[in-house]
Write a structure and sequence with these properties.
InterPro entries: DUF1989, UAAP2. It comes from Mycolicibacterium vaccae ATCC 25954. By secondary structure, the protein is mainly β. It has one domain. Helix content is 11%, strand content 29%. The strands form two sheets. The protein has a six-stranded antiparallel sheet with strand order 1-11-3-9-7-6. The longest helix is centred in the middle third of the chain and has 9 residues, at 134-142. The chain is globular, with a radius of gyration of 17 Å.
Length: 224
């Protein structure tokens, strides 16, 4: 794909945060999984099309998936628990996988984890057992790249709002995002990005109504 976005287009859902030739532009349906390798230097813009949609995300070095995103290392190195512009998403080796280069929301979660059949049942009751969760999405999509349950790690939740109470308890509340809000990630190495467009309907992370998102990869002008 060789399309270049017109940065004078004011429809935010129609354009990425970092302009340049488009190398990938895909919608991810509500509740669905998605994955792609983002080449070093390219920028992935995630668009929250309808607002208040949580997007669970795992990152791996494409050349060695044993090198994967580490929430503890990322939090330790940046000195805060939320992600925003300037946050470097690091592996447990300390190596940078991606960097948040632009953000229209201001805070993204690193602590809330991914929902699953087991956690849904524990939190919300046996009647939720038939509902698939992000863990199931990760396992199915990850299998396309040879990943198994052993390769899953603590994930990022883009657009999700998880405040920490003074006693250390985590809350899951209405998101800070809105229709068309975006976050942009530059790949510091060739990075496999694995996404579950969260199917959760039992708490406010998706406004109880999962909606689609858009994934746009652009190549900055200096790399084009």
């Amino acid at each position: 794909m060789t399309t270049t976005y017109d940065t004078t287009d004011n429809t935010t859902a129609a354009r990425p945060l970092v302009a340049g030739p488009v190398v990938l532009d895909e919608h991810v349906a509500a509740r669905a999984a998605w994955s792609a390798v983002v080449a070093a230097g390219d920028v992935l813009t995630i668009v929250d099309l309808a607002g208040n949609q949580a997007v669970d995300c795992l990152l791996y070095a494409a050349t060695d998936t044993a090198v994967r995103y580490s929430a503890p290392e990322t939090i330790r190195r940046q000195g805060r628990i939320t992600l925003t512009t300037g946050s470097v998403l690091r592996a447990d080796t300390g190596d940078a996988l991606m960097t948040v280069v632009a953000d229209e929301v201001g805070a993204h979660d690193t602590l809330g984890g991914a929902c699953s059949k087991e956690s849904n049942t524990l939190r919300y009751g046996q009647h939720t057992r038939a509902q698939h969760g992000c863990m199931e999405n990760f396992l199915l999509e990850g299998s396309r790249w040879g990943l198994t349950a052993r390769d899953l790690a603590s994930n990022i939740n883009w657009f999700m709002n998880v405040p920490v109470d003074p006693d250390g308890a985590l809350g899951i509340v209405d998101g800070l995002s809105a229709p068309g809000k975006r976050v942009a990630l530059r790949a510091d190495v060739d990075t496999l990005v694995l996404v579950s467009n969260c199917p959760q309907i039992n708490n406010p992370c998706n406004a109880f109504d999962p909606t689609p998102v858009r994934m746009i990869v652009t190549r900055p002008a200096d790399l084009a």
